[in-house]
Amino acid sequence: MTMTDFTNTASGDARVGYQAGIVVNLNGSYKVPPGATPEEIFRIGVEFLKARMPLEARKLIAKAIALGHATEEVHFYRLLAQLSGKNLRELNSDDMEGLKTICTELPELRGNDDWTVGLRSVVAMLTYFSSTDEPALLDKELAGLPPLQRELIVDHLGELLDGSVQDRMWLRSVERAGQLQLANDRENRVWIFFEPEPRRPRRRYAGRPRIRLADLLRAGLGGAAFLYAIGSIGWLLARGGEATLLLSFAAAVAGTAVSLWSGSIWHFRVRRVRVKDAELVPSRRRRREAPAGGFARRVDRIFDDCFGRYVPRDTDRSYWLKQTRGLRERLRDEVVDMYRDQPVKADEIAWLIRHLVADVKRRWQKDTLTAYRQRWRTPAWVQVSCLAGLPVLAIGCFQIAPAVVATSPIAGTGWIVLALVSAVICAPALLAIVGEHLRVPADQAEYDEQYRDRFLAYQRWADKLAPRPSDREMADWLECDRKLLVDRALRQYRLRASQVIAHAFIEAPHRGTKRARVHHGPLRYSKYQMLLFLLTDDGVRQVNFLHDFEDTDSFPTERLNYRFDAVAAVRVHGSPTSRQHFELTPVNGEPITALISETIDENIHPDEDVTALSEATLDASGLPRTLNVLEGVAAEGKEWIRYQQRRIEHRLEVLGDILRPSRG
Fold first, then answer.
1. Are 355 and 363 in contact (CB under 8 A)?
2. Which keywords belong to this entry (predicted)?
């Protein structure tokens, strides 16, 4: 295979298809609180180390020592942070100067507590390279360590050894990675890390009745005129003194009141059913598309996605989407209106949208989408009372109208006409006003029922997200994946660990990946495009993997072999606060590029620094180590191996002279 065959293997804009990055709030933040004690600073440094961010760990542990916290445990972790994940040939001059500084500050190791014993073993590993000790002696010493210290040394310093000891350490490390890869219920928990913390449902309020001024004027003026006319008619009848006419007048008034009240209820219920029916019908007005990148547009996408996936059984998707279009528009508008005035991300209420769509699907399957028609159907007693009042009113009017006109032809006729005209003006307004007063409690009861249902759904979702993994667990799982991928590549090439001069990863976020981070923590991705480089005496073996972190599923996308002198240049371009790309330029052919970091431009807390976050992400990915190895190869070719070995041997001799007295 020529060099041009693998051009742009991992290139491309990995931002395509991204969900918005999220920040999850977990205990154990990487932030050093103001006024932290030296011990607290040290503990946070240890968290950085355990999360595979040794650069920041070194700074914090060194700061804790400078402030006076310098126990054997602190020195133990400081050495681990200085050497974590490296082998001898990868140690540069800065690493060796750091080791020299650390070793000159080591106390006499004469105690027998676990940390002193562990520290002595790390020192023994370093002096082993500049002495004639048998490998078996070192192996025996490691086997006799307390479990915690032995696991930490194997985990962080396993690659520091060489020869048969390195092979045995590597096998232990791989075996342990296989045991821990799915530890702590990873399969059922890892997806939770990429889920945003859900926002609580908002309670809706019906508010006050919305009554138009025109209705108030019509009801007030028309009602006053009607009552004045009825009162005048009653006064004329009272002057006549006929009991029969007075009873007819009273019956007509009672019939009017009963018909008006029951008719208002009837009118409200019929109108409410019509409003609910209208909610199922798409709006005839042309809807304006929400601005790109805004909250409403993201809510639109989630609704469209959920309705596209939550299709009822035995239902055609296109028919489902067509029939629920109106309801989809109403639910979308409701959600946008509820949360528009809050600093809310659409992903934080995705649970609510899923719940709403699932509820529509459930009602569709049970054929209860129009159950409101039964709920708001007008009761028979309301209809009967309304219809019964009308004939009573009619009979009373036929009896009293001639008597009123006979008693006072001009005035009586005027009162009757005024009563009829004012009733026509006043009745529709009264129906609207009474309907509004009935709507408010009906809406509030419906909103309260919805809130209870949504709050239960919120609690169920929050409980499901409760076992969210910590960033430390995510780092441990990813490190296990890395080791198993390296072991897989070694077996494919039939190599032993001791035959590999160095190995290095480039971890690029894959297209369509989800991403998340903890406060002050590095970005973690659900899918990675991993470029693994194995440096051997024969050249570079490169294996590219597509790694699904959620499913722990990986498969190689390409295998490449090339000589050291085929690498012309290695570089990272882009500022720490923007997107950065790794680029390996061969002597002949187009560069291999990979997006290694995304712009961290969302959900930045006021106390977070974008540059520090970017550096933490690159540190967690192991990029500094990878660049150190590949830049050396690009600069010196195969001679890098020989030169580096000479440099290391000389520095170890100096280091051995410093360390031997410390072994006690």
1. no
2. Membrane, Transmembrane, Transmembrane helix
